Amino acid sequence: MIARLHDAFSIAEVVRAAERTGVTAFLARAGASSAAEVADACGLVAVPTGRLLTALAELGVLVPCPPDRFRPLVDLTRWSTVMASSWASLEACLRSGRPTVSADTAAGAAEFYPTVVPRLADRFSTAASSMARLLAPFAGRVLDVGAGAAPWSAALAAADPGVRVTCLDLPQVLAETRRCVAAAGLAERFDYLPGDVFTMSLPAPVYDLVLLGNVCHLFDPATNALLLRRLRDTLVPGGTLAIVDVLPSADPAARVRVALYELGLLLRTTRGQVYSIEDYEAWAWAAGFRELSTRLLDGPVDAGLITARVPDDRALRQRSRTSVEVG
Ligand SMILES: C[S@@+](CC[C@H](N)C(=O)[O-])C[C@H]1O[C@@H](n2cnc3c(N)ncnc32)[C@H](O)[C@@H]1O
């Protein structure tokens, strides 16, 4: 416990010092640099600067470029600004019981998510590749609901040229979706459907797979049950619903992360929470899905993949016809 507190404080101070001394800004400008170059440019001493760079590399913020250089992997300034301003509202949330951002309303999400979704995609990139491996082989039509920067559908599309994706999100967010999809070189296989998933008219059953990545944790149980019922009608018989979200864990280190994540949800939603596998299964079953299964995803976040299928009555009828003919 004390070790975790120790790590939390030291990491926060390492990030703060990197920002305040101009190290982060210099690396963002100059790219791969040695400790001596960073120290020289920022007016610092080389030995402690070298250890700071090593610590940032171990945190996954920088990539070591042998023999002695480091280049930025994530935009630390952007990350720390967003994270710090979000967590700074915790005290107000504890006092008022209200979030400072309403990411669980269409208007609030339209304002909040355009700058946030690329960071989410970074954070979940390993989990997205892991999901694509678990769903393979898959080729077909995909509806990515609440697509954001499209980490999940992009991983599927990257894994198989037969994947064709429609990204559904609020119009203000879809501009960022398009940018990220184009940057991944996947523009030709992606279409876009702007709208509020709760009120827009959804396409008739045309999709083989509906992805719902990091969306359910924003809403209360009744809203999620309703969402799954709506999405079922967009899937062809035999089609798959794939939900990805953070799940509770028994592992002590994961429990800390999940508890912090769930606390953080109240900074941006009124009723958002981390739901159990049983919650997802109950909503999916009530919406008419069958063949439910859950698998954990790789990566530094504690995400799981819950899949469920629309029963295929045609296949059942075909099977019973065949058995009558054979019998
Ligand atoms: C937590 S983000 C997840 C983004 C992406 N799926 C990911 O995992 O990185 C939630 C996404 O749902 C979208 N969203 C929220 N409410 C929505 C609504 N009512 N209709 C359509 N999209 C919505 C947001 O704009 C945002 O892109």
CATH class category name of the largest domain: Alpha Beta
Question: Within the CATH hierarchy, at the fold level, what is the topology of the largest domain?
Answer: Rossmann fold
Any idea what the CATH superfamily of the largest domain is called? Vaccinia Virus protein VP39
Query: Termini, distance in Å?
Result: 66 Å
* Uncertain stretches of 5 or more adjacent residues: none
Bound molecules: S-adenosylmethionine
Helicity, in percent? 40-55%
Structural class: alpha/beta
Q: What's the total number of strands?
A: 10
H-E order: HHEHHEEHHHHEHEHEEHEHHEEH
Percentage of residues in strands: 15-25%
CATH architecture of the largest domain: 3-Layer(aba) Sandwich
Whole-angstrom Rg: 22 Å
Number of helices: 14
Task: Provide the residue-averaged pLDDT.
Answer: 93
Biggest sheet descriptor = 7 strands, mixed
Number of domains: 2
